[in-house]
Amino acid sequence: MNDGNFFRSPKRMLGTTNAAELGLLYFATAFINLLIAGTYALLIRTELWTPDPIYFDTAKDYNVAFTIHGTGMIFLVVVPLGAGFGNYLVPKMVAADNNDMYWPKWNNVAFWMLPIASVFIWFSQAPIGWTAYPPLSILMPGVDMWIVGLVFAGTSSSIGAINFVLTIWKGRAPYVKWMSMDLFVWGTLFTSFLVIIATPVLTAALVMILLDRNFNTVFFSESLSNPILYQHVFWFYSHPAVYIMVLPAFGLISTVIAKFSRTQVFGYSSMVIAMAGIAILSVSVWAHHMYTTGIDPFVRIFFTSMTFVIAIPSGIKVFNWLTTMYAGRIKLRAPMLFALAFIVMFTMGGITGVYINIIALDLNLHDTYWVVGHFHFIVAAGTLVAMFASFYYYFPEITGKMYDEKMAKLHFWFWFGGNFITFVAFQVLGMEGMPRRYYTYPEEFQLWHQIATIGAYLMGISIIFMAISIHRGLKSEKLESLDDPFELGSGYDYPEPFADYIKREHGEDLVIEHKLSIWAPAGAFSLVLPFLGLLAFTEGGPFARGKALESFSGSLGGNIFIVLFLVYLGFFFQKESSAHIGELNPVDKYREGERHWEIWVFLASEVIFFTAVIGVSQAIKWNSLTWPDTNDVLSVPYTAVLTFVLIISSFTMATSLEHVKNGDMEKFKKYLLFTIILGLVFLTGQIIEYAQLAGEGDVTLADNATYPLFSSIFYLQTGFHGLHVLVGVLFLGFVYLRARKGGYSKDNHTYVELIGLYWHFVDLVWIILFTVVYLI
Amino acid sequence: MDNSIHSGLSDLGGNYMSKIEINEDTEHNMFGIYKNTFLALTIMTIVEVAASYLPDGAYVTVILLLLAVAKAALVGAVFMHIKYDKTPWLLTLSVFVVPLAAGSILIFNVWKDWRGVAGA
Amino acid sequence: MRKNSKYKLTLLGSLFTLLMGIQLVSGRSNLSDSYDRLFNIVTWISIVVLLFVSVLMARFVLKYREEVEGARSPIGHTMAKKLEAGWTALAIFIILVLMAVSYPTLSDLDDTVAAGTGEKLIIEGTANWEWVFHVQNSTGGVDVIRPVVDSNNVKTTTMTLEVNKEYNFIFWASGSWIHSFFVPDLNIKMDVNPGTNNSISLTILEPGNYVVLCAEFCGAGHSQMRGVIIVE
């Protein structure tokens, strides 16, 4: 697969749309990030050797270290590793057409957002903990940059998730049956659904923090609103995030255990059902992170019960893995050792998790090292171990060579031992009452802290062995055959590649071709510009609260970035609108007959985004004592006219699409132009409305505003909608440019349909918003 | 490349190539349907604005919400072509109902577990 | 925390002896009793589950290593179906047991909160990362107790409470940080939220010194805000 020159060609690395190669890039990025985040872990453990300062001079530096360690390990190491394996394996496991993902170009964009996210997060130096609870996160420096990094990471995994769903659902070869797919495909599918459902909610929470920090909104204000609101919204994403990380690991580990036991996966269907159960239940367990906040008793009972229930499928999976080994011929190579460690460690993580779901015990253990030990058992000793197992298992296939077994086993024993020592020490510290995120601690805890530190260094050393193992492997001779590199009696057995199938059945040669696209990574990088602009404004500009980028003159720096972005956008439109039609189409011709799931899946994630935004706003409204009569503070007739404008635009859009279907290109272009103009009218109308409201005094975000809460949710909801209209107008403009160059025809107008659906959806959202914001 | 896959797949049977386009009869009338939908949306918007000037009360809120849902449903069904889809219920369920339900769990708990003064 | 620690841990480090060695001493407060028993029950269940998984795994690895010759008799189809159902039933059973043992304590806390009885005691978490205790004194006034700062900038606030007397702890965040009032030896933790005040009613049944820590990350001074409750 990899011809060895890939990592020597920057152009190929940048522009590749080949899922297998992107998988390698994911691995490389995750490994670099693992080194960085791991270094932070060792610094933290060094600092805690004694209660006195050792490495970090101030508590703030220490707080930055654990924030960056946590954020990095979750969003820049474990989640990308799952995406990396997904890229490398899923197209093969479902025998996807062209042996690639459904959207090769978007796949490239999704990957390149990850290094961008990494840079933002590494440099943010936010001292808030990865959970970023307000009011702390509203008042601390560096958080804007951290949020931008997380939004990039979230967008990356969202695009990746939509791509996985489409690849598995639509790209799957017709002869790959659902219940014969590798369990990893199932794991990736469920993970992707979770990402699509949960990530938009995280984005909403983070943006609200950003607005609270910089624009004087009061969503989480302790005097006007409810800081605990954030905790609900945040954990709604971040608890499923655990399952987002672990579900692919479940799939990977099932394969490794079965292979090295030379048996079949036991209880395939119950494994799939268990994963489905975990995915469904995982969106209703989040508040078990909040038992000590003085949570409502009914809510608490609901969540403790749901959390108990979600332990059932995990238990079933452990028993099935054990049974898979029954009557096998177990070969204890490094991947199998890691897989066995996974079972034990995951069980440890599971049972320690039970304690903190029992409310009486959680009152003691919550926010102590018990919790730290628990989630390290699940993530570091569980998920990451599964990734190591699979990395070694697929190493021969990826490189054509065999890793060094001796070093890999050393890696295993040091990692396993280090895990065990450190995390058990964490549990003990937790039982004794050591709270987490402590820069210094009472001396009674020192012994167990030192034991934990020793374990951590063992883990650090193990990574050196891993590097040596990989290095020696890459230096070694090529294997003669990749059919069965571990001599297990069976190889990687993917289904027959689609091209081979077509060749055999129909005698046609399908050419496997992975195009290079420099514009895809350029698109990803160009998105940095508006965010840098935003950061320049927020950190140094008129709304400044943070100090990280104070050297920027906010308005100047921000304006430069925005202008650069607009210039880029112009170039991009010019270039892409004259591109050959075959290169532009997001979907291959052969998939056209099917329903356009690509846009529908995206719209599903938009639905939950707006549900969260509108719902949270409504919750704020219901709980407010004073609320203005909208007729007094807003101009309803004026907005009614804007609503009317948007309804006309939906009509013209639908008409336009109908014309292109009938082949009437002139009318198609005419109605498309109408739609754009109407979109612009709406946007202008909204800007005028904002300007008037800001001047009037009732619906403002000024410090002495009459209705700060009402204003906050007003601007949040209409602002997000306006942003969607703006994006819609940009895409419509792009479609129009292409249309003028003859880019669409009676038979080829997929893109018009997609943008049309998006536009109608934005209209639909406005219909709801108009009622809940202006009328009720 | 595209063409070869195209022909390869069309041989595989209806799975990939099944058309979900609207059938010939309705195609001629689509412009008319759009126009009627547009009129219905306009009328409902006017009613909405008028209703919002009625004195506040639960019944006004209910009417407004029903109108909003009706309008949204019209846009979804006609403009977004869900009505003409092969399996409209599957589409509605997976794209609208499931995310709405998931979001509603969140909102219900946020509302139920509300803390704070929430004045002003 | 205390010299006669309630956790008597061996240094051997093996998990089994570790968990076996934990003995919670009951009777510190009116809430501790059932919690200690619960902890021990859950620990025993956990030990059984962990042993079951590890022993089964070790046994399979030893018995079915490729080096071990001899025929293997795989699980037949019917048996596999039964076993699959059996595993599911076992997982459900374990969870049901855990629910059964934990649910009786579910509303303990609510009862004490709802009661709101006892002498008022305001626990203030400040913006400067310090505990300030507002304790009613014998003359009917309120003593405001502020922390003592040591050379390491550790801020310790000390108050004296009476044994066997019910107090109504009211948690108030006077700054913008969320704190969490945590007394490990009393099995108590309650967040101190800006904007709203949580409260619990508590009777301490045993004299002694109880260390107070902050358990919710609150910024730079998080690890240095401490307190001591002297119960006599």
Average pLDDT level of chain A: 88
Name the assembly state. heterotrimer
Report the order of strands and helices of chain B: HHHHH
CATH class term of the largest domain in chain A? Mainly Alpha
Number of strands of chain B: 0
Largest interface: A-B, 96 and 76 residues
Q: Which structural class matches the secondary elements of chain B? A: mainly alpha
Question: What's the tally of helices of chain B?
Answer: 5
Kindly describe this structure.
The complex is a heterotrimer of chains A (776), B (120) and C (232). Chain A has 2 domains: 6-478, Cytochrome c oxidase-like, subunit I domain (Cytochrome C Oxidase, Chain A); 605-775, Four Helix Bundle (Hemerythrin (Met), subunit A), CATH 1.20.120.80. Helix content of chain A is 72%, strand content 0%. Chain A contains 26 helices and no strands. Residues 541-554 and 583-587 of chain A have low confidence and may be disordered. Among the domains of chain B are: 29-80; 85-112. Chain B has 5 helices and no strands. In chain B, helix 3 (24-52) runs antiparallel to helix 4 (58-79). The N and C termini of chain B lie far apart (64 Å). Chain C is an alpha+beta fold. Chain C is built from 4 helices and 11 strands; from the N terminus they run ααααβββββββββββ. Chain C has helices at 15-20, 32-63, 77-102, 108-115; strands spanning 119-125, 131-136, 142-145, 148-149, 155-161, 166-173, 179-183, 188-192, 198-203, 208-214, 225-231. Chain C starts with 14 loop residues before the first helix and ends with a strand. In chain C, 35% of the residues are buried. Residues 1-26 of chain C have low confidence and may be disordered. Chains A and C meet through helix 3, helix 10, helix 11, helix 12 and helix 14 of A and helix 2, helix 3, helix 4, strand 8 and strand 10 of C.
Observed structural traits:
heterotrimer, A: 776 residues, mainly alpha, Cytochrome C Oxidase, Chain A, Four Helix Bundle (Hemerythrin (Met), subunit A), 2 domains, C: 232 residues, alpha+beta, 6-stranded mixed sheet, 5-stranded mixed sheet, 4 helices, elongated, disordered N terminus
